[in-house]
Amino acid sequence: MKANLKKIMLALAITSCALPGYFWLLPSRPVEIIAIHQEGNFSEVLVKSFPLTDKEKINWWLENKDLLKMKYNIPAPSASGNFYVNFWDFREGYKEKGKYDRRCFDDMNTVKNCIDKNAVFSVENNRKKETLFTVYDGRYRMEKNGKITQLKDE
């Protein structure tokens, strides 16, 4: 009986140390950009290891927007200056069309050219040239002065 109790206590000790470490390392994983699909001023970015919280997602964009522009020409504004960038979770990879409500990419000449629709973040601009962020829990607006505010549901 004492041997079982010791094993349980050891397992609990290991778990109590491992879980905080896992959650500490999780946000520090670099975002992996798998592919880019563009159609006009719409950019679709397939990613792995995207940040989890709203604040982390917006901060990631702000820290990486110049790199995305240089390396991938994202965003690609229309003649009027409008753009839309959608980030999709690519955890499960490309799939065949088959299933309802998959996002398929016509720029790929292959049977597996679709992903499950699991958007993790989007960035666009409005007529006032303010940047809008859409995340799981809502929408945020970054004004020209850099101030970011959460938009209320309408």
Characteristics of this structure?
154 residues, alpha+beta, 7-stranded mixed β-sheet, 3-stranded antiparallel β-sheet, 2 helices, 10 strands, 28% helix, globular
Write the SSE topology.
Blueprint: H1 2-25, E1 32-39, E2 42-48, H2 54-72, E3 84-89, E4 95-96, E5 102-104, E6 112-116, E7 119-125, E8 131-135, E9 138-142, E10 148-150
Parallel strand pairs: 2-3
Antiparallel strand pairs: 1-2, 3-7, 4-6, 5-6, 7-8, 8-9, 9-10
Characterization of the model:
Helix content is 28%, strand content 33%. It has 154 residues and is α+β, with helices and mostly antiparallel strands. The protein folds into two domains: 1-29; 31-150, no CATH class. The protein has a seven-stranded mixed sheet, covered by helices on one side. It is globular. The N and C termini lie far apart (61 Å).
